[in-house]
Amino acid sequence: MGTTQNVTAADGPVPSVPAPQLAWKPCVRGPEFDCATVKVPLDYLNPGGRTIDLSVVKRKATDPERRIGTLFFNPGGPGGPGTVQMPQNYQFFPQEIRERFDIVSWDPRGVGNSTAVNCFASPKEARAWMSGRPAGFPVGEQQRTAWIAAYKDLSRRCRQRDPELLRHVSTADTARDLDQLRRAVGEPQLTYLGISYGTFLGATYANLFPGKVRAMILDSNIDPQAWTNHASNEEPELPVFLRMGSDRGAAATLDQFLALCGSATVDGCAFSAGSPRATRDKFAELTRRLRVHPVGAWTYGRTIGDVVSALNVVHPGWADLAGKLQDLWQGRVPKPSAPLPAPPVPIPYLGEEQGGAVLCSDSPNPHDPGVYHALEEAAALRTGDTGRFWTWAAEPCATWPAVAANRYRGPWNKPTAHPVLVVGTRYDPATPYEAARAMAEDLANARLLTNDGYGHTAMLNPSSCVNAYESRYLIDGTLPPAGATCRPDRAPFSAPEPRGGIATGGGALAAAGS
Prior knowledge:
By secondary structure, this protein is of the alpha/beta class. It has 18 helices and twelve strands. The chain has a ten-stranded mixed beta sheet, with helices on both faces.
């Protein structure tokens, strides 16, 4: 536990660092979970310098006599707080995995209850900043000016608060933290499940520590080449989410939502206009109307942002979205969504600068805010409303004040000790299926499992078939057959059906994100 280990950076060896010590104790609000805090170097190239805290959470294996080891989980983002989201999503882990693995997650550096990026002096100041920028994305020259000014102001605030931290929240830094956590729990190799951004973290780990991979599931993938802009030192022409194809995935998923809604009755989908074509036309008319006449605070930009987020989780997200759209169609302000269950840890400050600090320092984006309107219009020609949303989602990076000191930008094909299981969902509104195919090809030894369904991550859109394949792989290393395809347990806009198979339970995303 107290030994040291040399790790390798992209540009040379990293000094040895002692393994941290984990002092577990029951979490404050949820005694079935254990909590701990560990210290790691801010900069692994200078391990004797400043340290930062990582907040860690664990749920012990429910069948300890058959326990295999520890499964590490990253919930994505970037900026997803594992101490909040792992407990909220615990029931989504297949029952057999809950029985046989301790499940551990953590707030990555810069996030949540760990040493966090926080660019405001008080919650009141943060709320005031939030209220000053358009919701969703900006529409019209006045809103674009306000949006750009707000994010320039945020960058200025962040640069003043803790500029050193901003340079050390890269995915490579977090991958090294993950290896320290692996050592702290005494595992000779890593067992890992990463969803969304957690797939890029997993791919980074697999190439920094290829000999340490016991089993790794990457669900809803980011193509590493798209994230890093193929490791080019030139300024990219497209922002990161357009390179990733998030706009294409969202447009295809939205089209499926409208088609399936239109094929359902109004009882099944409140926004149905009786046919797929009529429902698509109804949505187009609603968005045209909202551009001119918002419904309360529901502008066109806010509505599209909400639509893209709501497509992530099919049940209950799609039916709830249909109800909101029908409210807006009838000129009513939609009711707020029900709050999520309280996690077993204090809910930390989760300002958007936390995910932004990782994204903007790690992944290159065009630096001139003035080009984003033209990029938006070009994206809208190929993917409509979702192209507008995903273009502006990366604009905060245009003026971000930091570039990561220690980025890993490839290669992505280092042979791992064991093969990786890549899971891709056919209609994913954030990380398109093509990115899962690219990830499986980028990695040296990976198998692609196709989830022929909808929503962002197979984990949060349960499939007993996917769960069974994942369980076999995590427990004994058995991969699905080449070309294997699964389907979700429930189709969109369908009533629940009692099913056998692996229990998946309930849960929800703590925050929207890719």
